[in-house]
Amino acid sequence: MKIERLGQDKIRIFLTFDDLLERGIQKDDMWREIPKVHELFSEMMDQAYSELGFDVNGPLAVEVFALPAQGMVVIVTRGKMNGHVEEGQAVEDDDGEEELYEMEVTLEQSDNIMYLFRDFEDVISVARQLHSSRLTEDGRLYSYNGKYILTFESALVEQPQQNALIALLAEYGEATSVTYAMLEEYGKVIMPSGAVKQICTHFKP
């Protein structure tokens, strides 16, 4: 579980699938009214307070973004809610008082596998491996906050190959908590398509 502050009243929590499995939670459980999800939420808020001093006061808006290969991104915003609560859930704090938070579930529209690389040499290395193993010649390459992110549409890769693709990407890079929407807005496209093929063409060993 990785937590970072996005603003005074907003934090982002990255949950890997291992984080969920350790707690006996399936991906689809995240937007269900079950005790173990409440326990996970309480754990996240405790960790946010201890690591960032993010105090849970009043209503919270919670957005959950499912990423196909990496896990889930949970964005928590503290403050007054606008309008009515469609899926209001009551949570008791330590004093037994109930605090209301709104659970908004937002799923990524495009099914993208995304991995972050700190060094361009790692991007070249993984592209060569993907090319030589004939897994894919596709991919889109972004620069984001001084790092590089390779994205692939999982729908274009068959399941057995998808596992091999992710295993290779994980060797050189790391799963990222950046959502595709954030990448489109704040990242810069270096290669819009065929990134693996282009990298292998331009950077021959």
TrEMBL record:
GO molecular function: protein-macromolecule adaptor activity
Matches recorded under Pfam families: MecA
Membrane spanning stretches: none
Domain comment quoted from the record: The N-terminal domain probably binds unfolded/aggregated proteins; the C-terminal domain interacts with ClpC.
Assembly description: Homodimer.
Primary role: Enables the recognition and targeting of unfolded and aggregated proteins to the ClpC protease or to other proteins involved in proteolysis.
Annotated PANTHER family: ADAPTER PROTEIN MECA (PTHR39161), ADAPTER PROTEIN MECA 2 (PTHR39161:SF2)
Protein name (database record): Adapter protein MecA
Origin species: Paenibacillus beijingensis
Gene it is expressed from: mecA
